[in-house]
Amino acid sequence: MKSRHSVRSQPAATFVFLEVFSCEGGIQSYVKDVLGAYLQQPDPPVSDVFLLRDGSACNNPLEGSALRFHYLASPVAQVGRIRLAVALTLHLWRQRPQQVICGHVLLTPLVHQLCRLLGLPHTVMTYGKEVWFPLPDRERRALQQAQAIWCISRYSRDLACAANKLNPKQMHLLPCVVDGAVFTPGPPVPELVQQYGLQGCKVLMTVARLWAGDIYKGVDVTIRALPAIAATIPTVKYLIIGRGDDQPRLAQLAQDLGIADRVVFAGFVPTAQLPDHYRLADAYVMPSQEGFGIVYLEAMACGIPVLAGDADGSADPLQDGRLGWRVPHRDPQAVARACIEILEGEDPRCRGEWLRQETLTHFSPEALAAQLHQLLQPANFKAEGNQDAKLQ
Q1: Domains in the chain and their CATH numbers?
Q2: Mean pLDDT, residues 176-189
Q3: What is the reported pTM?
Q4: Which of 174, 170, 143, 176 is nearest to 380 (CA)?
């Protein structure tokens, strides 16, 4: 008997990614969410997924689904690229999928060339900084000639268009999401409260890499805001989740400001333990410059009010400030004023259940599945070379 996924003779899509399951990161998390959303469609047709840097030994929870995975990792990078080029060429020539989804701008020259030769439509998935600046000529031309480009936020869309002369009509929003079954409200875990010395405290929290190259996250700005916050909220402490080479500078800054006892460096926390850590917080604070900022969704899904920068992709998860505070990202005084408002708890944006409901309405896996289903409709794609192709 044929499986319910084998009744279609033509694969609906072919996905091509750098790596998804062999490492963790924002792009990898986003891709997993998109692939999961694909599988949530009613009777998802069989589709193929090519993985340049993932090997068959990687932990892939999506094996055995309507997605067929092709692992092409090699100890020699050039060999892996050759394997991908050969395997993808043969696959596209034989299978003629309805559309090809290119999962990283570095893969666009190969995907564009093959799709142009075979008359297949293709889409490029983008995530953030990789398309915010002018790309090399090959990547930029391939991106310009894609049928569609998916981006995670309006901010990322606008930067990509300006930097690489892209047509805004190519661009479609496909945002990050949060799993509301994992990130839920709840009381603080007493053991964690004791571990971090947070008894009787009002807690600000940030989850971020503490790398010297990532000072845009604004951890230092929040530390600078602490003296002013403490003058009004004497019990305030700042819990920082993350690790990196910038931690000594941040610790010294807290020492110099006389607030070292208010700053708690928790170090690395595994993903599975993050919900319990969010529940320690009275406010999530990250005055940053994000392409989107999934951490804001995670905090709000846990019922925690949030503070973000006012000139970045956080406008989307915060719904232009309707769900949280947006302040100039390098302004400690603005951060201090907003944190005091949050900790005083009188603003409607501090209502946890409302925050969670509004967040999940727009940024749940179910919402992503519905958006992806719409983007994958054949009406949105035409073959390469068709000058009449229109993208809504």
Answers
A1: 14-177+366-380 (3.40.50.2000), 190-363 (3.40.50.2000)
A2: 97
A3: 0.90
A4: 170
